[in-house]
Design goal:
Blueprint lengths: L1 E3 H26 L6 H31 L5 E3 L6 H20 L4 H43 L1
Antiparallel strand pairs: 1-2
């Protein structure tokens, strides 16, 4: 299953957006009983930290890696490298384990998952933006090449 290079960005968009949406949904469902100004501020802080130091860098790194591929078609799972898949697996396992074990209070789930889910969703949307930019650039190159013939 090989896809075009730019399609890898679209796949990253879909995977991270779906993950972000689901985590954000879990956080928001837990939020009503814990809605305070402090909790909203803490969620915003979690969002900012994850976006600035993890997911923002991840989007730039993987977009640059994918854009640098010289071949046009790639295996569909190459939208991330092994390290990114490992991070995703650890986060999913940890998050599921945390919720199932009952070790984390609902307030933590509300605050942390809302911030984390928002940052993941934004990362997915940024991959989508990068896909759109790459698709437009490819279309422009194709049109230029066709007009030059």
């Amino acid at each position: 299953m090989h896809v075009k290079r730019n399609t890898l960005l679209l796949l990253a968009c879909l995977v991270w957006s779906a993950a972000g949406f689901n985590i954000l949904r879990i956080g928001l469902l837990a939020y009503p009983a814990h809605l305070t100004a402090l909790n909203v501020l803490l969620s915003a802080l979690v969002f900012a930290v994850f976006q600035r130091f993890i997911f923002g860098k991840l989007v730039k790194k993987h977009t640059a890696r994918i854009s640098a591929y010289s071949e046009e078609r790639h295996f569909f799972l190459k939208f991330f490298d092994g390290k990114a898949f490992a991070i995703m697996a650890v986060m999913m396992t940890g998050g599921i384990g945390l919720r199932v074990s009952g070790l984390a209070p609902e307030r933590f789930i509300a605050v942390f998952y809302t911030g984390l889910g928002g940052a993941l969703l934004l990362a997915g949307l940024l991959f989508g933006r990068n896909y759109g930019k790459a698709a437009l650039a490819t279309a422009a190159q194709t049109n230029f090449a066709q007009k030059g013939e």
